Every structure is written in structure tokens, then in C-alpha cells.
């Protein structure tokens, strides 16, 4: 499940702007449940407080299935955020297993979108949808392709941007998008999230009109850093994919992250405690949080020497506003 972030009140210059990040905001770990077992108190609100201190102002919560999309919309309405509606490629079999079949599942997604097009808590994109050939044990390639196409119909019907997923499937991914009329006229847009592909793939996707979003997993290797550096400012979005995709000391990005000023490090990566020693108000060690979005932004800033940190965050803020059709006046926590 995913999210977009935006500062709610005057903040220090180094935190100005809105940061785009991807967050599994409805994941049970934010409520103290790990691997199906209650391990500590629910610290969802504490996590949100840390996000606000880091400059997070609003979120676009992404649905990865029909049920998750319903939850995303409910949470977005409750918190005054925004949401997406769609089915992740690894869950594509849900279309065929749904009572009434694929048509009924698609209609249920369609109805969910049509009922939530206005005001806070509204749908701002279709997805997460796409192709994932790394995990075909969840859904075969042909099943993924079929139901990727069907969701593109929803994006065209409602003229909403796409929230896209692509793993080890670039050729089929871009071919389907082109065949369905995306990436040619420049009017139908979207973002390829959690990008881990090549420089060549970055360039092709940007030339098709798509934005590229990166997180900790997008910055693991030197090749990843080269691809991230190739993203044009007007096509850049940022994310965390929390509670996953943490930035760690073994990643190629760590050398750049080590230059993060102490004043920002305390906001983006506050002191944490190990799970057995949970302390309310402190993050759980190893659990990525939305506040880490600043760390992702810092790495992109350092990859583009000479470009001020504030300029990077402000550009991503504007990209987010424009892509998802948000209004500055409604970006208040």
C-alpha cells in the first residue's frame, strides 16, 4: 500500500517541499503485530507523529487488491489523505477466483473508483498494477498480463494516472502500455514505483512520459545509483515502501547517506529499539518508516552534486502535486 507526503506547517528550509514515498501504511507491523503475533503496543499514531516531524504532510495510500483498496480508501478518508485503487500483479489470480469471475472483480474496482472521486480520501491513481516476473509462483505471466490490461481500461475510463509495478518484465510491460495507448500522446501518465531497472529502462520510460520513483531498494548497488542519477528532475518521485526497503549500511547508497547532517538524521532516522525492548515513541529497529523519505531525498541530492537539497525536495513536491492532481490547499494534516 502506498503514500504521498507533504509538510503541514512552516518547517525549516531543509525540510521544505513535499516528498513522494511508498508506504505499506496498513501493514500490521505498525499496530504491533509481527508475523501474525502481537509483539508490542499499537504505535501507528507515534509513527505518524515521527513522519510529521520529518516534514511529511500528506499521503497517497496505494491499494494492492480489491480488499486492500477498500482499506486504503477508508484510511485515507479517516486521516484526510488520498488513495489509489488496483490489483498488484502478484495478486492477479484474485480476478479469476472472485465470485462472478474477472468481470465482476473489475466491476468491483470500477465501482470503488466511481464512488470515491471527490474530496479528501479520494482516488488519485489506478494501481498498484503491472507485471512481476520474479514472482510468478503467485500468478503466472499470462494471468498477470491479462489483468494488467484490464486495469488500464480503468485508467482510461477515469483519466487517472497509473501507479505501476515492473519486475524482470520490462519488454512486456512497455509493450502492453503502448498497445493500450499509454506513452505515446503524453496525456496518459503515471509512475513506475520502487524502480530497480537499468539506465536504458529509465530513459525509455521517461520518454514514454512516465515518472520514476525510488526508495531504499532502488539504491542498493552502484548500477542502481547510476539509474537513479539518470532520472530527469521533472520525472522524479521519491518513496520508502515502508515497512520494507530500509536503507542499510550494506547498500551502495550508504556512503552518500553518511553525509546527512546530524540535525536531519535525527528526524529521518530517529533512534530505534529492538523488538523485544519496544519503547513507545521510538521506532522498531529494522522496520522502515515514512520518516526515512528524507534519507532517500538526501541520496538523490548527493548523486546530483551542485543541486541544493531544498531544490530536490521542492521539485519532487511539485511533481507529486501535478501527477496526482492535488490541490495545495487540501495538503494540510
TrEMBL record:
Keywords: Hydrolase, Metal-binding, Nuclease. A divalent metal cation 2 binds at residues 165, 193. GO terms for molecular function: 3'-5'-DNA exonuclease activity; metal ion binding. A divalent metal cation 1 binds at residues 34, 128, 241. It comes from the Eukaryota. Coiled coil: none annotated. Pfam families: TatD_DNase. GO terms for cellular component: cytosol. Belongs to the metallo-dependent hydrolases superfamily. TatD-type hydrolase family. This is Mg-dependent DNase. It comes from Suillus discolor.
